[in-house]
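User: Fold this; tokens only.

Assistant: Input:
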Amino acid sequence: MDAASPENPPKNCLIVVAAALVDRDGRLLVQRRPAGKPMAGLWEFPGGKLEAGETPEQALIRELAEELGIDVEAACLAPACFASDTLGDRHLLLLVYVCRKWRGTPAARHADALRWVRPVELHGLDMPPADKPLIGLLEALV
């Protein structure tokens, strides 16, 4: 059996990337998960799952284009923090990047709503369990 590695994660490991998009006023963009999806109604950072053969940066660029209709350069993605959590019978590894520069205006293509919030306001939002420990780290970074 091959050992797990970044190129060969364990079969039960779900790698997800997300962006902490920061506007000129120091606010972060969050989106609300739509009805019918797991964790519907919770606020989260935009992003999604890696597809086969993608790097985290490639996946995040693709996800931001699909979910928000914005274009991001890999050089504008700064690795910021990560979370590790159990998600049912899988293990979630959430990689978060800070992004301060993009082209286009974010639009809610796959979410119920978008919201720009100050980092301290994240504490008052209903967010997925894996996102909550990241709030303090993002407050310090932004």
